[in-house]
Amino acid sequence: MADGDQPRNVKELLVEAKDASELMVDLAYAAVFFNEASLAEEVEELEERLDGYLRRLREISMLAARSPEDAEAMGGVLHLAGAIEKIGQAASDMARVVEARLGIPDALRRDLRHADEIVGRVRVREGAPCVGRSLKDLLLPSETGMWLMAVRRGTDWEFDPQAETVLSEGDVLLFQGPEDGVNLIREVAGAPALPEPPESDVPALNELDRAVDILVEMKNSAEVAVGLAYSALLFKDTALAAEVATLESRSDILHDELESWVLKAAPEARNTDELRGLLRLGYASEVIFDAARDMTWLIEHGEELHPVIQMALEESEEVASETIVEAGSRAAGRSLKQLQLETETGMLVLAVQRGRKWTYRPRARFELEPGDRVISIGPEEGVAELEALTRGPAPAYGSR
Questions:
Q1: CB atoms within 10 A of CB 283
Q2: Which residues are CB-neighbours of 340 under 8 A, at least 6 positions away?
Q3: Is-contact 288 25, C-beta < 8 A?
Q4: Among 88-92, 270-274, 310-314, whose mean pLDDT is lowest?
Q5: Domain with CATH 3.30.70.1450 in the chain
Q6: Which class is domain 10-111+206-312?
Q7: In this predicted model, what pLDDT tens digit does every residue of 334-359 receive, in sequence order?
Q8: How far apart are CA 347 and CA 343, in angstroms?
Q9: Quick one: fold of 318-390?
Q10: Are 177 and 133 in contact (CB under 8 A)?
Q11: pTM
């Protein structure tokens, strides 16, 4: 939505609220990774914007309910708004860890590089391929797998840059995406490729290492849970809703383990504020799981969803996709690493259903088979590219 434009109806408000809450989470994790207060402050400003969207949405919903039937129909919209609000509040809690200077263990920043989607930044060099081109022309999500969260020019930030944003020499790009896409976006920015990290002996894990590893797993799983929850709503799919419930139950176990390892690390900790930061981040991740489960409550209980929910999810910045791998397709029998789905299409595979078994966030070596049901999210232009990869060959002319 262009600057100065205000969402005018329930659908637009839902779209803006969903996108704002997801940007808040991305920026909050980036603030933690870079220990940068300016990013944390932007999360707080986005929370005010999100509150305004949700307040206006509730006002319009109440005015639209002129009968018990109308009120029941809008109930699902308000339920979804409440879940989105939870996600925004969790992101704000993460940002406050940075703003309160609780400290983040160096091990956390190092391990966040092993998250499913990492954050990074790069400065646009003189003569770079992206100079003078708009984001619409560059198609970074589908060409590199990377999403731009923000662009910094001097001391000014442009958060959530839109398609018409034109990049200039000296811009600093804050991006998020798969590790394989880092050097691709650096190439677009005219920056040299990052060298391969040196191999080193892995030291024995201590209590703090284990706590950080659990937190990274919670981050990855929480993002999957939210993506699956939106997909469950879009496709009205009880199987997806059940998988969100499974992830939420698993999160309770992970949170208990996180607290246990943090307590074990306390006697050796030099700075107990860092441990408080870990606990707060763990709690915020748990709130995101709860919000995802709240969304799927509507599907689990057979609630009739208002059409505006599906329209809003279809118009969001990231769209959900469901595709079946067909026999003879380019995807059949090949691993995700061979296909390079994220960097080639910009689509993030959330889960694959094979028979009754689900695989969440399949790893690079995971091979797709005919009949696999692939649930993914990404840019709208990436959906057609993913479908082309999973579609089998057209029948020969004249065949029966």
A1: 15
A2: 180
A3: yes
A4: 270-274
A5: 125-188, 318-390
A6: mainly alpha
A7: 999 899 888 888 898 999 999 989 99
A8: 8
A9: Alpha-Beta Plaits (3.30.70)
A10: no
A11: 0.84
